[in-house]
Each structure stands twice: as structure tokens, then as C-alpha cells.
Amino acid sequence: MNKQKSNNKMKFNIYWIYLLIGIFFIGIQFSNNSSNGKKTNWQNVKENMIKNNDIEKIVIMNREKANVYVKQEAIKSKDIYKNINKNPIGGEIRGPHYYFIIGSVENFENEIKTTCENLNINEINVEYINKKDVFGELLSWIIPLLIMIGIWLFIMRKMSGGGSGSGSQIFNIGKSKASLFDKNKVNITFKDVAGLDEAKEEVQEIINFLKNPKKYTSLGGKIPRGALLIGSPGTGKTLMAKAMAGEAQVPFFSLSGSDFVEMFVGVGASRVRDLFKQAKMKSPCIVFIDEIDAIGRSRAKQNIPGSNDERENTLNQLLSEMDGFESNSGVIIIAATNRVDVLDKALLRPGRFDRQIFVDLPDLKEREAIFKVHMKPLKTDKSVDINFLSKQTPGFSGADIANVCNESALIAARKNKKIIQKQDFLDAVDRVIGGLEKKNKIISKNEKKVIAFHEAGHAIVSWMLKYASPLVKVTIVPRGKSLGAAWYLPEERQITNTEQIDDELCATLGGRAAEEIMFGKISTGALNDLEKVTKQAYAMVSVYGLNKKIGNLSFYDSSGRSEYNFTKPYSEKTAQIIDEEVSKIIEKAYQKAKNILTKHKKDLVTLSELLLKKEVLFKEDLEKIFGKRKADESKE
Predict the structure, then answer these.
(1) How many CB atoms lie within 10 A of CB 370?
(2) CA–CA separation, 468 vs 198, rounded Å?
(3) Parallel, antiparallel, or unpaired: how do β-strands 38-39 and 98-101 relate?
């Protein structure tokens, strides 16, 4: 209770003194104004005061103002002077009691002389004074000045960080924007990060080093300067950093690479200096820079001198702070990027980012673990098989799986369900891959028939080929930009050989081949297929070295500098050979697809008619027509 009372007491503030001084000066000015008496006019003075012989004297001030002093006997005895006998701040008024403005001194003197003669009284004593109201004049220009200074101080205080808004930090523009977290602010730990066991192990070692450095330094080891998290978007790099903040028992600074970029010259470098200054004060600590490619792009790619000096200066300052002349013991930098190919080589050398931790797309077991994490808050049916869902989502990142779980809940709620079922998850997978269904899209019967044969062609060719990805389902319901789609389940493999790519090309061209066989003409519906086939064929020839005529050559530049070059890394003759070989590969795959569909033309018609009837077909429907897939039998 005593503590509460002490907290409720008003604390002393310096502004109270300023307020009291202001009240004091205003009071003096008010008392001065009140001592000037009440305003009146010459007619009243003449008829009421001079006539009754009540005036003691008249003082002419500065030849323009007449101050009238009334005799004390008259003030005490006559009721008309009662109101002038008291001062508003206390005490009696000694005079002047009245005042009025005169035109000219000569005329006023004549008026008084004439009036006294007419009334047959002694002439009134008139005095003359030249006096200036120095204090009043001083206040007249000091008060506006003080008001202007106060407004200026208020604005400056707001702009220097006292207020919120876009201009509130104009004087702190060179300060670091890093957010400081401690163990009580972040609830995410490594338990919330499913999969990524190798990455967690490396990151955990850094945290253990900070917690117990003697374990490593006793053997002569040094704390690593930095670690770079590399991986595709959505694989969990930022989530890993949040888990580090939750696990670490040390201060954790978090900011984005774009926080250093500013239109003002020198701001980026200043923020880097301020960041490391704060980090050294909190040492040992961890600094996390997300999307470091915003400032860490290679300086060699700046073909135009001075094209982006500010970003380069920021990078130079970062390099200097990470491994410069001054030591930064106890400060570990963790950065994340999905564009490691564009980073400057000086940033990646040992001594700066000592470790590069690859955060890959999750495999089957890791996807299952990620589903378990994101399905915890969901109300799911017992029939939902997590292992089945993980098999249906090859190539999905952790962010994609989180989106699937969220979409399944939204789909179930849209259908007024109280629990999420297996079909809701499958619809969510389709939603993430292909987009929202467009059942109201106007499609003519002829167009729908062409789409059905096109998708049936994909399904049959992929079903008959050994190395093509097995079909999961095929549909002619429009989704997103596509009028139909076929879903496949790619095999979990790390390398791909020539036969596998050839079969994938053939299956991709199955839709166009079906159109030509059934209708004798082709349409624009194969645009996406042709784009995919062309890129894949060019990669075979010019990147992976899978073409005999070109040989074991690769024109791929892993450093990413080729996109800034105006010339190709091969001659015009080689370019012509590449084009010819690509055309041969695609044509060979197309003829192979046509041969398969010609051989199974009756099955193509049957499947397309069934597709027109049901709109969606699954793997089981194809097994009824073609029997079990030979490639699946061989695997079993």
C-alpha cells in the first residue's frame, strides 16, 4: 500500500517553476493595469468631479493621457466613489482613480481654466509627466517570442523521437532500427520448428557457445563470427531465427536488410555502426539480419560506376564491422537469404560468415513433422492421415504446408462443418497448387471437349511411361488461369538422368498430341506445357551437359553474373547447334507421345468421356481402365 501511495504522488517537474514565473509576471502586469484607474471622459469629470470640487490633481502623462486623482475625503464620504476604493489584488488605490484621453494639451488647459472660472472655484493643479511603460513594452514582444520558442521546441522534440509518425525520427535517421528481444519476449523455440534437424544442430551449437563458452575455448576454439541461413522462400529461415531468440539466454537484435537502405547519403553506414555499437554494449549477443541481399549484393555487378554508392558504402561498413581492425568478441551475426548467388564474395569468406547453413525444402518425414505442428490447433477428423497428406505434397515448403492447414479450416468453415475432414485437406492442396475453382466460367461444349481430351492425353502418356511422375488426379474444372489440370506425385530423388527427363517431356506434350490425333488441329491450350518443355530441353543441352553433340559442357554461371553480361558465353555456331538439338529433343518426345496415344486411342476416348461426365478423375479411375501401372508394380 505504501508503494502505491508513493507512486501516486506527483513528481517534481521543472516546468512548474516556469509556470510560476509566468504567473508572477502576468500578475505584476495585471496590477499595473489595475492601478491606472477606471476609464472615463471629460464630460463626466467636468460635471461630477470638478463641479463638486472632488479632484485633488490631474496628471498629464506623455501629453495624451489625463490621470485624475480624487480627494480621499470625497472617496470615503460619497457613494459614487465606492467602486474605486478597493484594489483587485488587495489594498486601497492611492491613484490615479480615473483616466481619459485628451486631444491636445493647449485645448485641455483652456477647458480647465474656463470651467473653473465658470464654476467660481480655485484652478485645479495640473502636472505633466513623460513616462514609458518599459515592463509592458518588454512583455509585449517577449511573450510572443517565448510562445514561438515553445512551439519550436515542441516540434523539435516530436521530430527527434517524442512522437509517432513518418517524420518522428528525422533526427534519429542514422540510428539502428534493430528490435531487441530477450528470453521473455519470444515464445517460439526449437520445438516449434519441425524438421531441419541439421540446421537446428548447427544453430544450437552457436547458442551453446554463448551459454557455455568455456566448453569450446578450453580446447582453443574461437566463437564463430557469423552464420548464413540459405534456402528457398518459405523453408523456415526466419522461423529458425525466432526460435534462436526464444532459445538464447542472451540479447537478440532483429532487423531486415532493407532497414539499412535510405535515400539519404551515409545513413546506411551510420546505422551499421550504431547497430554494432549497441551489440557490443549487450555482448554476448546475437544479431539477426533478414534478407541480407538487400545490402550485400556483389559490388562487381555494379557495371556503372557510382550507380549505387550508398548501398556499397553500407556493405563496406558491414564488412569492416564484422571482421575489421576492431574486435567484436561475443557478437554473432546470423543472416538469411534466398539469393546467395548475388552476395558479395567478401561477405561469404571465412572470418565473416564462417558457416553457411542450407535450409532445404522438407522431405517426406519432415513434411509429416511440419503437418503435426500446424495441425495442433485444428479440429480434425480421426480419418485424416498425416502420412497420406505428406505424400500428397511433394515440393511443398513449410510455409506452403502452413497455408494448406489454414485453407482446410477455411474450406470446412465455408461448408458449415464442425470438424475438418480429409477431403477438406485435399481441396486445400488443390487450392494452393492450382488456385480457386471457377465453376461459373463460361466454356462452350466444344472447348470443354478439347480440354477433356487434352487432360486425358496427359494422364494416359504419364501412365504408360516408366519414369514419368505417377498421376494423382485429373480435372477439367477451371482453376486460376488454367482450364484443366493434372496432378502428379513426383518421386523423391536428388538427381535425374536423361531417360527420366525424356519421359517427363513426353508426358508434358501428351495434351497437345491428343488434340492433334483426335481433332486434326492444335490449340493455344498447351502454352504452359510448351514453356515448361522448352526450358527443360534447353537446360538439358546448355546446363546439364546431357546432349551428345554439345558434349560435357555447361554454360550455367552459378555466380549469377551472366545476367549482367551483354554477350553469351558461346559462339553463334554453338548457339545454332543448341537450338537444333533442343528442337530435336522436343520433336522426338512429341512423336513418342503421339505413338502412345495412337496405340491407346480407344482408351483415350473412354477416359475423356468419363472425364466430361465426372469432371474429376482419380488414380483409382485410371486403374479400372488401364489396370495397375507397370512402374508402380516394379517398385513394389
Answers:
(1) 28
(2) 31
(3) parallel
| Phi, psi values for residue 7, rounded to 5° | -70, -30
pLDDT tens, position by position, 363-376: 888 888 889 888 88
DSSP-derived secondary structure letter, 343: B
Q: How far apart are CA 187 and CA 183, in angstroms?
A: 8
Catalytic residue check, 455: yes
Residue with cell 463460361: 442
Amino acid at 330: G
C-beta of residue 611 within 8 angstroms of C-beta of residue 474 = yes
**Length of the chain (residues):** 636
Q: 455, 504, 515, 581: which one is catalytic?
A: 455
Q: How far apart are CA 112 and CA 46, in angstroms?
A: 8
Mean of the pLDDT values across residues 398-408? 90
Sign of CA dihedral 182, 183, 186, 192: positive
Q: How far apart are CA 467 and CA 299, in angstroms?
A: 44
Residue 102: is it exposed, middle or buried by C-beta count within 10 angstroms (0-12/13-18/19+)? middle
Give DSSP secondary structure letters for 237-286.
HHHHHHHHHHH-SS-EEEEEGGGG--SSTTHHHHHHHHHHHHHHHT-SEE
Burial letters 293-314, b for 16+ CB under 10 A, else e: bbbbbbbeeeeeeeeeebbbbb
Identify which of 215, 193, 241 has the alpha carbon closest to the alpha carbon of residue 357: 241
For residue 453, give the 3-state DSSP assignment: helix
Query: What's the confidence (pLDDT) of residue 409?
Result: 92
Angstrom distance (rounded) from CA 112 to CA 353: 101
pTM above 0.70, yes or no: no
Cβ burial 466-476 (10 Å sphere, 16+ → b, else e)? ebbbbbbbbbb
Q: What is the mean pLDDT of residues 592-598?
A: 92
